[in-house]
Specification:
alpha/beta, Rossmann fold, 2 domains, seven-stranded mixed beta sheet
Length: about 375
Amino acid sequence: MKLGLVSITVAMMLLLFGGCGGAPNEIEPPQELTAAEQAATIESLRPPKRTRPVIAVLGDNAGTETTDFLIPYGVLKESKVADVVAVAPTAGAIQLMPALAIQPQQTTASFDATYPRGADYVIVPAMHQSDSPAVLDWIRAQSKSGAIIVGICSGALVLAEAGLLDGRRATTHWFDLDALERRVPNLTRVDDRRYVVDRGVVTTTGVSASLPVSLALVEAISGVPTARALARELGSSEDWTPRHESDAFKLSAAAVGRALSNWLAFWRHERIGIRISADVDEIALAFAADAYSRTYRSKAYSVAATMKPIESKRGLLLLPDHAESLAKIDHYAELGGGAQALDRALDGIRERYGDGAASLVALQLEYRD
């Protein structure tokens, strides 16, 4: 999910003049997460078809959120408990947003030919177009085949367009909750949960929820010890439960003002380079590129020795934005390792642009900095 200039302007108007009226959806009263609820959640995520499941991480070639796509791919691939495939409707590049581009490993058609029983899980990130017919038709077909469909962040809006959230409990990025409720009048909104599972459909809160929900899938597939070992390897918190504080993420006049002032000061905008080479960690790359592209002061670009595709640590083909000899970069950001890369990026943003910019990025990512 990316707060664009139009969204920021609309948000400012809502802050000044109040929101629109209309009948609210049902909202489930917030409750403490119990051990029984957690156990039931993991049980509902068990592989529906295979002992070693097949996971399709779906991107729309026209635009797919960077972290929503790369984090589940990287975490699930690193777990080695499933066959993970990067899929798109066509064979062309997937333009990630707000930064990076990758080459899909299979088209939806070739995936169907390879796996006629369908996937066990389909990961659906936020997409530039939430109503692409090719994307929606494929998601519906996979759901009918028995796949568990996982909408990451504002990928919930794609699931809504596919008709998969009718009558279900769900959540999404804090900025898109109202839009989701308008699209699905019979949806029950669930607060204070990073991810919600209802009858084979999963939705999550903001961008940073992509990591805990991926670890939850690893637990469902292979157990707590495997998920815990993976969390430690990645440098992630070992609390990947659905526990969340929804009230901590709300748009304020200060956040809107910061975004507008940063965006309007175009003479201070910077191009941030992130060097990529063979075996680059796509988890760290996603967090850094996403964070630096959300300051309204900077935009991240991948820079390589040449313009040839680069194979990442876990087998994705990354398409460089620039060759280093020709790149016009104001500052190069250093990658952290694994899940720690987000904290490192926020520290770098804080040092370069101030606390306000770092807080604005954390708010967009729905992350407690």
